[in-house]
Specification:
Layout lengths: L2 E5 L3 H13 L3 E5 L2 H8 L7 E5 L7 H11 L5 E5 L4 H9 L4 E4 L4 H15 L10 E3 L2 E4 L4 E4 L2 E2 L4 H12 L5 E2 H9 L9 H14 L8 E4 L3 E4 L4
Parallel strand pairs: 1-2, 1-3, 3-4, 4-5
Antiparallel strand pairs: 6-7, 7-8, 8-9, 10-12, 11-12
Helix pairs in contact: 2-3, 6-7, 6-8
């Protein structure tokens, strides 16, 4: 049973959403402020995912996310936003959120997003669990570890998933739609920047190593491609 921490200062909303998630097989714990969220996340028995509202009194959800990512790259974070502005969504992704969903979305969609993030954060199975290597870059799904030139890359759960998919298809252009469905468990929506932001983060983490500054290239009209050395 996956454990979800629900962080929102709207108590009634939390109660309704928690009831639905429990019926869907989740174990849910709710807290109603930023300080309570940080205190809960500081415990050793951390949740499998965090569902985080950004519009809380200080510390707001953005600050909670910033502090969480300072200490932990791996916990999947789905942030809730009542703001339809694209800028607000991108800010959350830039700070390390894995995906976002509107608070006006159905509980069914929210549960599906959480399941996709938690599934991606788990240990791989079958062919997906086999270690893979592209030149100096190696990835071991069963250990959730990616190393470049002998140094471990600090990847979030979703960044790991994106890199894994690109490595499995190295040398081939992959569409953003395919990346979104494979890693986030959903198709692209209009003006959706989630895949672009995650790829941008991976590029920055690869670029500190010589020769890897431009190994993930954008393919116009398609998506992205991880280049293989000749």
């Amino acid at each position: 049973m996956a454990r979800v921490l629900l962080v929102d200062d709207d108590i009634e909303f939390c109660e309704l959403l928690a009831a639905y998630l429990v019926a869907q097989g989740f174990e849910v714990e709710a807290v109603h402020g930023g300080e309570a969220a940080l205190a809960r996340l500081a415990r050793r028995d951390r949740p499998d995912a965090v569902c985080l509202d950004f519009m809380m009194p200080q510390p707001n959800g953005l600050e909670v996310l910033r502090r969480l990512r300072r200490d932990n790259d791996w916990i999947p974070v789905l942030y809730l936003t009542a703001n339809q502005d694209e800028t607000d969504r991108v800010v959350g992704l830039e700070l390390g959120a894995d995906d976002y969903v509107s608070k006006t979305s159905s509980p069914r969609e929210l549960a599906a997003r959480l399941k996709a993030l938690i599934r991606r954060g788990g240990v791989g199975r079958g062919d997906d669990d086999r270690p893979i290597r592209v030149d100096e870059l190696s990835l071991v799904p069963s250990e959730r570890r990616a190393d470049l030139a002998g140094r471990t890359l600090p990847l979030t759960s979703t960044e790991f998933g994106v890199l894994h998919y690109l490595m499995r298809n190295a040398g081939t252009a992959i569409s953003k739609e395919d990346l979104s469905r494979a890693v986030l468990g959903r198709g692209l929506s209009p003006y959706d920047r989630a895949v672009d932001v995650h790829v941008s983060h991976i590029r920055k983490k690869l670029s500190v190593h010589e020769g890897w500054q431009n190994r993930i290239q954008a393919v116009r009209g398609v998506g992205y491609q991880l280049l293989v050395s000749a």
